[in-house]
Backbone:
């Protein structure tokens, strides 16, 4: 009995020795992989909450990382996840090369310059191992100040409108929503145009601009805007449908605008009767259903081709017209489903004529040229701190074979804050070329890609 026990004891000891030696050998061979890493991360040299200016360059430094090639850093909205959706971060880069191109080798430590969000708030510099999007190895909080609020101009805006506006702020610097206006505003044409674009370009733009005075009806606009929100998660962009007193021809004077915005005058009654008509027929049904929209009324007011141009009614006249429309919709009618887009014409200057920040959510420019390029007015409009986009873009002369594939590169290198771009119809060759390359670019977000 003793011998058996002793033999078992000796065998157990021998096995334990072998196991220990084997474990040592395995541990020695795997020590590079399984050794714990406790990296540190700083923002502008600070390991606690740094304060940075909105849209400024931020230096993010990591030390003691695992040196995987795809280790990356991001300026994120969360301290636990980042990169699951486009709106999760304001900027990011791989630590090894400080770019978004996959490096071939990793580094333990390094510093990269990233761009902070343009929206005030609390953020996190996150360090993730090997392209992960959850479980950062190191996190440091920081605060952005001096930028936009991310809140809608209408303080009572419905959550759907507020959330979409915040999404635009979040994707600034990284992504751009594709969009197009409709050749005709009917529901059937909307479906046919969408199918044609998908077949020709391989994808469908994320945004649409329907207007019933382009061949549809108010019911068509309601149906299109509803489908767009429920399926694309984007608001329809709607230009002015109300008809001016005296029609569209001619020129207003500043005194005309004063009369149009003063209750009790004949011009006020004519103008607001037209507004009431379009609100009743299409805007109120959308508001009642909780469907957000983007109003792009009085666009290109810095030009002289519309009767409300700055040359005729001045800065004060445009501002008065805009303020009256904003307050009439949100206060008089009590509707709160709208975001308001201010969209002058590019190149010609005087971009902020009539602009008043408290009545605007999104700024843009309408740009027509022989092809993609830097848009004069971009710096002035982005300086407002609002999300920026192209309210319209397209060729300046038909048949120019406009190369859409150039846009993503131009945006990334010269206008990174562009959050949306609305192509003026039609989108097909021979007028436009390479629409598939435009929509397929990693910069672009199309139908089905909007997540927030």
Residues:
């Amino acid at each position: 009995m003793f011998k058996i026990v002793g033999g078992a004891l000796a065998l157990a000891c021998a096995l334990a020795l072998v196991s220990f030696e084997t474990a040592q050998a395995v541990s020695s061979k795997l020590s590079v992989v399984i050794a714990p890493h406790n990296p540190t991360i700083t923002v502008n040299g600070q390991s606690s909450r740094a304060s940075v200016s909105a849209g400024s360059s931020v230096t993010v430094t990591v030390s003691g990382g695992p040196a995987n090639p795809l280790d990356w850093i991001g300026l994120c909205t969360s301290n636990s996840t980042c990169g699951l959706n486009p709106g999760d971060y304001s900027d990011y880069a791989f630590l090894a090369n400080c770019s978004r191109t996959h490096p071939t080798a990793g580094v333990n430590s390094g510093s990269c310059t990233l761009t902070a969000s343009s929206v005030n708030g609390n953020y996190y510099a996150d360090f993730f191992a090997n392209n992960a999007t959850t479980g950062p190895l190191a996190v440091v909080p920081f605060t952005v100040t001096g930028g936009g609020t991310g809140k809608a101009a209408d303080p009572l805006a419905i959550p759907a409108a507020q959330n979409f506006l915040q999404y635009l702020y979040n994707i600034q610097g990284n992504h751009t929503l594709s969009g197009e206006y409709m050749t005709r505003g009917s529901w059937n044409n909307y479906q046919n145009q969408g199918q044609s674009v998908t077949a020709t370009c391989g994808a469908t733009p994320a945004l649409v601009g329907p207007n019933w005075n382009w061949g549809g009806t108010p019911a068509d606009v309601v149906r299109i805007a509803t489908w767009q929100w429920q399926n694309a998660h984007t608001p329809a962009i709607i230009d002015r449908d109300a008809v001016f007193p005296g029609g569209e021809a001619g020129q207003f004077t500043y005194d005309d605008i004063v009369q149009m915005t003063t209750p009790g005058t004949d011009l006020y009654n004519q103008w607001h009767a037209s507004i009431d008509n379009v609100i009743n027929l299409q805007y109120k049904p959308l508001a009642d259903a909780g469907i957000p929209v983007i109003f792009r009324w009085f666009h290109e007011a810095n030009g002289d081709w519309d009767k409300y141009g700055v040359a005729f009614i001045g800065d004060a006249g445009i501002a008065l017209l805009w303020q009256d429309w904003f307050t009439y919709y949100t206060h008089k009618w009590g509707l709160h489903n709208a975001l308001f887009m201010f969209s002058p014409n590019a190149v010609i200057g005087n971009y902020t004529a009539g602009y008043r920040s408290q009545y605007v959510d999104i700024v843009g420019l309408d740009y027509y040229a022989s092809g993609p390029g830097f848009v004069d007015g971009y710096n002035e409009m982005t300086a407002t701190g609002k999300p920026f986009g192209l309210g319209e873009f397209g060729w300046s002369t038909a048949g120019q074979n406009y190369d859409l594939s150039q846009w993503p590169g131009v945006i990334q290198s010269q206008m990174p804050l562009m959050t949306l771009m609305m192509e003026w119809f039609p989108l097909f060759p021979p007028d436009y070329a390479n629409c598939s390359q435009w929509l397929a670019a990693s910069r672009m977000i199309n139908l089905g890609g909007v997540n927030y």
